[in-house]
Amino acid sequence: MLYGKNILKTFKQISFLFVAVLLCAISAGFSTLSAAADANSLYLGGFPAGFVLSTTTVEVVGLCDVVTDCGMISPARNAGLKTGDIIDKINGEEVNKSSDINSLIAREYKKYELTVIRGGENFNVDVVPAKEANTGEKKLGVLVKDSISGIGTVTYIDKEEGKFASLGHPVTNMDGKLVGINGGTVFGSLIYDVKRGVRGTPGELRGAFESGNVLGNAKLNCSCGVFGELSKDFNCSRLIKVSKGSVDDVCVGTAHIYSTVYGKEPERYEISIVKVDKNNKDNRNFVIKIEDKRLIEKTGGIVQGMSGSPIVQNGKLIGAVTHVFVNDPTRGYGIAIDNMLSSY
């Protein structure tokens, strides 16, 4: 009888061990599935952001006089500088930010030669800095900027990799050329007004930066948008988790965009994808048409500031809004998400 009890006890121990191993295996399976799901998922954007990007160029935005002991002098104007010029070098040393001008001009040189970029062409000019009467500091008499700012839309958040993507197109200068950046800060933003788009005149979103709400740091401005590192304390709990799509998943037909045209919470709007061009060299992979009457009533269609609004079809993130047709604000272009994902 005692022998039988030992067998029963041993059987129970084996059974318990089997169940424990099975539970561990099931748990490991769920863990693997969960990790795989996270790797194939992103958090949907559609909310506005304020961008303050440090540029790699220093642009002249104004000319002014320097008050000296001999009167008012404008060295920059006398040297022939104009608004819109880029000060590229001083005596052969690169100028990447406005403070570089002050530090280079403060040095004792017999001659100061500026390398200037105007209309895409480089030329050199000699300039004689003026000594300011009050401070004794040497000045050129220029007002410059080394940053650019504006409102755009975040496309997605990759929480696993700690990064974000936005805009779907590059930030460019007045000549349409891509602006090199030395980093920058991206803030949460609040849309308070919209200028409706009409045929021939694009509309725009008007927003205010939330200086205490930092989304992250901008690291890259490229043909597919502005990308960067996500702030570690950014809260994704209010965002929608969505599967990564591909241009191969896209078909002509109904889709949706997520965008914010008032406040800071995105809404879903119905669109149609009317054309797919997988290999478009300008990242204009879709032609889209706004179908949602609510959005047309509010904005007239696609407006500036909506760039980056994510496009979702059949439950997958497939791309982002990038451009509007100037002669038909209800139509525009979208970039495939594949291109954005491979950029950063």
Find the structural class using helix and strand composition.
Answer: alpha+beta
Sketch the major β-sheet.
Answer: 14 strands, mixed
Radius of gyration from the alpha-carbon trace, in angstroms: 28 Å
Helix content: 10-25%
What is the CA-CA span between the terminal residues?
A: 71 Å
**Count of DSSP strands:** 22
Uncertain segments: 1-12, 14-26, 30-36
SSE sequence, one letter per element: HEEEEHEEHEEEEEEEEEEEEEHEEEH
Which range does the strand content fall in?
over 45%
Mean pLDDT: 89
Shape: elongated
Number of helices: 5
Give the SSE layout.
Blueprint: H1 2-39, E1 41-44, E2 48-63, E3 66-68, E4 71-73, H2 75-79, E5 86-90, E6 93-94, H3 98-105, E7 112-118, E8 121-127, E9 130-131, E10 138-139, E11 142-158, E12 163-166, E13 181-195, E14 204-222, E15 225-230, E16 241-244, E17 253-259, E18 267-276, E19 286-290, H4 293-299, E20 310-313, E21 316-325, E22 328-336, H5 337-341
Parallel strand pairs: 16-21
Antiparallel strand pairs: 1-11, 1-16, 2-11, 2-13, 3-4, 5-6, 5-7, 7-8, 9-10, 11-12, 12-15, 13-14, 14-15, 17-18, 17-20, 18-19, 19-22, 20-21, 21-22
Your description of this structure?
- It is a single chain.
- This protein is of the alpha+beta class and 344 residues long.
- The protein is 18% helix and 47% strand.
- It is built from 5 helices and 22 strands.
- The protein has helices at 2-39, 75-79, 98-105, 293-299, 337-341, and strands spanning 41-44, 48-63, 66-68, 71-73, 86-90, 93-94, 112-118, 121-127, 130-131, 138-139, 142-158, 163-166, 181-195, 204-222, 225-230, 241-244, 253-259, 267-276, 286-290, 310-313, 316-325, 328-336.
- Strands 1, 2, 11, 12, 13, 14, 15, 16, 17, 18, 19, 20, 21 and 22 form a 14-stranded mixed sheet that branches. The protein has a 4-stranded antiparallel sheet with strand order 6-5-7-8. A two-stranded antiparallel sheet has the order 3-4.
- A hairpin with a 7-residue loop joins strand 17 and strand 18 (267-276).
